[in-house]
Design goal:
Blueprint (H helix, E strand, L loop, with lengths): L5 H9 L5 H22 L3 H28 L1 E3 H4 L15 E3 L5 H13 L12 H4 E6 L5 E7 L2 E2 L15 E2 L8 E6 L4 E12 L4 H6 L1 E2 L4 E5 L15 E6 L3 H4 L3 E4 L2
Parallel strand pairs: 4-6, 7-12
Antiparallel strand pairs: 1-2, 3-4, 5-9, 7-8, 8-10, 10-11, 11-12
């Protein structure tokens, strides 16, 4: 167990106080009063931060109340006028039309959108910064160490112009720059060597995505014009996403699976 989780450890060993539930309930009940008292007394930057948090909290509460009201309102169809032509004997009837916040079609679309980009590798191991970047010393006596050498495979675009060495913060070695990837089509069961367009997402963080670092689990965009894929409307598909399934720095090549 990590060092800082001693409270959880004690709770597992000896359990909680007998009145724990009651104390928690009372603390929650008092919370509004204690918060109000704190907001009255606080000054300076702490007051600004507290007010900002409270503002966001109130906005969220208002939004929830509005959604709940919309969900529970029952509108009379007669007031708005019938959607379809009604016969005479139904004209005097008023039907209750319950307004739902999210219709079934919207929910379905959201589910489809969520499932659209299901990736082969969902979780990847976190790579430490020391493994990813190596400190490069500079200066007359080698005291300055603000430069970093990228140890992993990277992708650099065609139009990339390197900064002057003195000002270069991250050094991406030429030997670890890749332009093509071996992409497997899951339905065709065939592998193609396709040019990389860009690195869309690196699971290790935004900084590595911006640098174009390619590690296991990274989502890259590849040029699939050679495959002759066509959209339902008849347009040719140029770029498609693929997820890297190997460790390119160890294997010397990028293996990826096309996200269909």
């Amino acid at each position: 167990m990590p060092q800082n989780e001693y409270i959880e450890q004690a709770q597992k060993r000896y359990g909680r106080r007998l009145d724990h539930v009651e104390r928690t309930r009372k603390r929650e009940a008092r919370k509004a009063h204690t918060d109000a008292n704190y907001l009255k007394r606080v000054r300076g930057i702490k007051a600004k931060l507290a007010q900002k948090a409270r503002y966001a909290e109130k906005a969220e509460i208002r939004k929830k109340i509005r959604e709940h009201e919309e969900k529970q309102t029952t509108e009379r169809v007669k007031d708005k006028g019938p959607k379809n032509a009604l016969p005479g004997f139904l004209m005097d009837r008023s039907e209750a039309d319950r307004a739902k916040v999210l219709s079934n079609s919207l929910k379905q679309k959201r589910k489809e959108k969520a499932g659209k980009w299901a990736v082969p590798i969902e979780k990847v191991k976190t790579v430490s910064e020391d493994e990813m970047l190596k400190a490069v010393t500079s200066g007359k006596r080698g005291k300055k160490s603000w430069k970093r050498l990228v140890n992993k495979v990277t992708f650099v675009g065609e139009t990339f112009t390197r900064r002057m060495p003195k000002m270069e913060r991250f050094i991406r070695p030429m030997a670890l720059r890749f332009k093509k990837a071996h992409v497997t089509h899951p339905e065709l069961k065939a592998t193609f060597c396709l040019p990389i367009i860009s690195v869309k997402k690196n699971p290790q963080g935004k900084m590595y995505t911006g640098l174009g670092v390619i590690t296991k689990g990274s989502v890259i965009e590849v040029n699939v014009s050679e495959l002759g894929l066509v959209t339902p409307s008849g347009k040719v598909v140029w770029g498609k996403y693929a997820q890297v399934t190997n460790n390119p720095e160890n294997d010397g090549c990028i293996n990826a699976v096309l996200l269909v």
